[in-house]
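Write out this protein's structure.
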Amino acid sequence: MFYKKNHITLYYEKIGNKKKNLIILPGWGNTRQTFQSIIESLKGKYTIYIIDYPGFGNSPIPTKVLTIEDYAELIYVWIQEKEIKNPSILAHSFGGRITSLLIAKYNCKMDKLVLMDVAGIRHHKITTFLKQLFYKGLKKSLLLLPRKKRKEAEKKLFQFFSSTDYQEIPPIMRKTFQNIVKKDLKKYYKKISIEALILWGEKDLDTPLKDAYYLQKHLKESALIIFPKASHFSYLDYPLLTNNILNKYL
């Protein structure tokens, strides 16, 4: 099903018809398809809603650059217009960014909250700063090259300094991505007062384990479960354990 608001189109699926509602908010670039095991496990207890963010899966690429506030507003208005009452939220990675704003900025009423390897706690690393500075310096130096050689050199420089995921997204989404990752959401996470379960991969390289401890410290009604040797996609590394935990908690 498609939902359109302010020239942004969102694709979502609704599974089941139970009294309780569960919304799954995937990570950046991820689609609903990696959550099939969780959906199968919980669809007997919940009406489940799961989405593809604008620009991913079945949702078309937006025609303008977006911010995290745009995403949060879109999801909030969608929840209100579809009358999804008092949902529980299961958020992975980027989904945590949206959830923090839904609660802290929009006061969205929720039942329970599951945060899995969520993003939005920014770390100001000197190595990242120096890498960005070095990249900008090298890019400026390419202006000395002839135009034809400059374009090829800029392409190689971009490929060397950027991740594969970043290279594969369309240019308009790259600016959106930049807007999102530079936003520090600590102040929003600190305002979460509802009950929350935090699930995290011990070897998560995208959102480090110290972020999980930060959330556990500042979310008063929270519990933390760490999956040994698991990656950023801990729910895929431990599918059966994740399903068992979610069934007992939710």
